[in-house]
Amino acid sequence: MSSYAFLNGNEAVAWGVRLSRPQVIAAYPITPQTKAVEKIAEFVQNGELACEYLHVESEHSAMSCSIGASSVGARAFTATSSQGLLYMGECLPYASGARLPIVMMNANRALATPWNIYGDQMDVMFMLNSGWIQLFAENAQEALDLMVQAFRLGEDETILAPVMVNLDGFVLTHTYEKVHIPSQEEVDAFLPAPRVHPHMMNDDHPMSMSISAGNQHNQEFKIREHLEMLRAEKRLEEIDKEYAARFGRSWGGALESYRAEDAEVLLLSAGSICGTLRFMVDALREQGHSVGLLKLRMVRPFPTEALAKACAGARVLGVLEKDLSFGYEGTLFTNINSALHQKNLALRSFNFIGGLGGRDITRQNVEEMVSILEKADAGTPTIHDLNGRCPV
Amino acid sequence: MRNFEMSPVPKLDSLEDFPLGSSFPSFYITEKNAGWRVFRPVIDLAKCVQCHRCYLLCPDGAIHKTPEGTFEVDYDFCKGCGICAHECKLQAITMKKEGSE
Amino acid sequence: MQWNARNLPEDEHFYGHKACGGCGESLALRLALKVLGPEAYLSLPAGCMAAVSFIYPNMAFRNNATITPFAATAAVATGVEAGLTALGKKNRLSVGFAGDGGTADIGLQALSGAIDRGRKFIYICTDNEAYMNTGIQRSGLTPFGASTTTTPSGRAVRGNLGEKKNLFRIVAAHDIPYAATASIGYPEDFLAKVQKAKDAEGPSYLQVYCPCPTGWGYPPEITVDLAKEAVDTGLIFLGEYEKGAFKLTRRSKEFAPIGAYLQRQKRYRHLKEEDIRHIEEERDRVWAEIFDCWPGGAKSSL
Question: Total structural domains in chain B?
Fold first, then answer.
């Protein structure tokens, strides 16, 4: 029986994971992901979820246990955030290079120092090069749906890559909304049982894994990994279509365009802030502004073509993000600009850095941002601090 | 007696020939280690009492028991470390310079 | 099961590897795998054994085997066992092999967590008293006086000043079902302990002493000889921790002279008389503790 419940983002993730029948879960707490592993523990200890729930002693071991389990073909899940994500950092390319379809929920949170437990995107931007598929949820319903879709996507035998599902810390992990929880039967029909793929360790044909490859071979191993990861963009779209057919909800593929086709000014972001931007696009359109939203759902692999198509008619693009690569610019901005440049698009792009350390991004912030974009001329600085205390 | 066949070095003409992930079948041996040796062990079967000690202590497992119950060195994989000769209590194994006799 | 050279399975499961000639660790692995069998799933971190056995396309293990992140041997080994259990596999034997650096230093946290979780796996630490794969640097298990590249014998300081961490005691303090120290110089004792680890209900730990000709500076043919002499001098003890009790599995009436043992290795040749006396005193201190403090008073199985 499918049902509705009032869930926060963490709980929605827990439900999405439960429905996906994980086999090994490595749990380590870190704010603001704790409620997710706690909810899963409740399911396990109530006998509602049968899996091996391992209490690991660090995030590095959380990912390492997941690697061990996935290496023999078990469906593995773990969750982390900021400091924990960086602590397990060296394990991430181990998993992606070994082509292990581990799914991990990352609660995006600020990085120390200064110490801060609230949400921003500094942590995930660190890990874009790790070989993990990177997905971003806007709300709790999308988070639940993405968890189920992530297992399907990563375990696809043409893809075989680990998947990170990002939820903004506190803003999404801790806020409540009405969420539809599909029934177990429906999810079972959509998500097949995991397979022991031929490259994984098995009794019939023993394998050596995470082998070393010298300079004569290493580059080809990596290129192959990269090319096969690129397939995930199209596959996500296909999976989303099938999910929509079964569950009645579509979130789109790597990039969602909202009222963007005829917009002069485009706003682009990833994560829960898209909810605010969506609301503001409607409000500003009411006032006669020509503005639209591009919601980036998949940052790795990066949807260059889809972005180019979506930007084709616009005059200016504002990239709003909750991270900053010190000494340069926001990382999403760097990614976007590369795509725009490759596709020879004439529109001008601007970077807006806000929300660091969990600071609210307000309606007024968005209005100011749109105002800057509308008035943008040759003299407008490229990078903006959303709170404008000083030039960036 | 070695209980496996040597395996061929894979032909890697295109990306698809490379392994998926960083996995490869176990016990896939493409190279011999014979070239490492400066000295090679020679077992004097007349002195040998088949105590099994040389076979037990070879770090490379390169001393094998024959069906007749004697012991022979797999010279393709012996590195010439000399542990067998040193450990043989009857000095039935001598290390001879590679290339002599 | 009393394993010996005659009743060990003849099949080799570790072959064609690129370890140095006379490598103690590779002998320990080879022998352990004869007891553990080709069905065991192996986890090895960065280290000599990983570096010499997985060089694409030459794979030296017959077993399913994976290289793990350096700190994570015990964590990956646990994950493998959990995965096999979750998949309902009958064969769930998961074994981690790591060196002294990968265990006593960077791997200690994961080892502690894995023992704490109580799930069955075997951890075998091959102790050659330094980070050998990276070129002979000091580790937590490097003994006093040893010259390594990061504790070289210099004009101001003569080699390593720290004492060897008593890792066996640290592991035993977890109340692990079974832990033991061994040496490839006493191979039958080692094989028996591998079997006990295999039979243990829950985690088990073995620390096996493996001389390294490259790192210690001696001709490779005396590897097993040195491994035996180390035990005979009392610098290495052969013991077990089982069901809350310690016991020795070898106890000699008299220790062999330390000086002679040390002089055979280049890493100790710079030592002065006072250093050797210090090493003797430290050995005596460790043995006094064994007799005075081990619950059960160091009962010997002999």
Answer: 1
Q: Please, what is the average pLDDT of chain C?
A: 95
pLDDT in tens, A69-96: 999 999 999 999 999 999 999 999 999 9
Residues in chain B within 8 Å Cβ distance of A213: 22
Angular region, A380: left φ>0, alpha ψ -120 to 50, beta rest: beta
Q: Which residue has the tokens 């959380």?
A: A62
**Binning pLDDT at 50, 70 and 90, where does residue A17 land?**
very high
DSSP string covering C112-136: HHHHHHT---EEEEEE-SSBTTTTS
The mean per-residue pLDDT over the stretch C200-212 comes to 98
The letter for the amino acid at A171 is V
pTM value is 0.96
Instruction: Provide the pLDDT confidence category of residue C302 given band limits of 50, 70 and 90.
Output: very low
| Inside any domain, residue B56 | yes
B28-47 residues touching A, CB cutoff 8 A = 28
DSSP one-letter code for A28: -
Domain annotation for chain C: domains and CATH numbers: 24-300 (3.40.50.970)
CATH code, domain carrying B88: 3.30.70.20
pLDDT digits (tens, 9 = 90+) for A196-211: 999 999 999 999 999 9
Asked if residue B44 is part of any domain, the answer here is: yes
Residues of B in contact with A99 (CB under 8 A): 20-23
Confidence band (pLDDT; 50, 70, 90) for C244?
confident
Token pair of A210 as six digits:
């995470």
Q: Is residue B72 part of a domain?
A: yes
- Whether residue B92 lies inside any domain: the answer is yes
Q: Is A164 helix (H, G, I), strand (E, B) or coil?
A: strand
Name the segment(s) of chain A with CATH classification 3.40.50.970: 3-246
The partner residues of A234 in beta bridges, in order of sequence, read none
- What's the pLDDT score for residue B101? 64
Cite the residue boundaries of each domain of chain A with CATH code 3.40.50.920.
255-385
A94 contacts A132 by C-beta, under 8 angstroms: no
What are the b/e assignments for A274-297, b being 16+ CB within 10 Å? bbbbbebbeebeeeebbbbbbbbb
| CB of A225 closer than 8 Å to CB of A199 | no
Can you give the pLDDT at residue A387? 87
CA C57 to chain B, closest CA, distance in angstroms equals 7
Q: Which residues 90-129 on chain C approach chain A with CB closer than 8 angstroms?
A: 91, 94, 109-110, 112-113, 116-117, 119
Under 8 Å between Cβ of C193 and C3: no
SS (H, E, C) C83-111: HHHHCCCCCCCEEEEEEHHHHHHCCHHHH
For domain A255-385, the CATH architecture is 3-Layer(aba) Sandwich (3.40)
Q: Which residues pair with A79 in a beta bridge?
A: A105
The per-residue pLDDT for C301 is 43
Residue C292 tokens, joined: 């005075």
Average of per-residue pLDDT across A7-24: 98
Helical residues (DSSP H) of chain C, grouped into ranges: 24-36, 48-53, 73-86, 100, 108-117, 167-172, 187-199, 213-216, 223-232, 258-263, 273-293
- Expressed as residue numbers, the domain containing B77 is 32-97
Over chain A, what is the mean pLDDT? Answer: 96
B12: amino acid identity, one letter: L
Taking the C-alpha atoms of residue B85 and residue B57, their distance in angstroms, rounded to an integer, is 10
On whether ipTM exceeds 0.85, the answer is yes
Best mutation target, C17, C30, C41, C59, to test chain B (most B CBs within 10 A) = C59
Q: Do C109 and A211 touch (CB under 8 A)?
A: no
CATH superfamily of domain region A3-246: Thiamin diphosphate (ThDP)-binding fold, Pyr/PP domains (3.40.50.970)
| Partner residues linked to A136 by β-bridges | A166
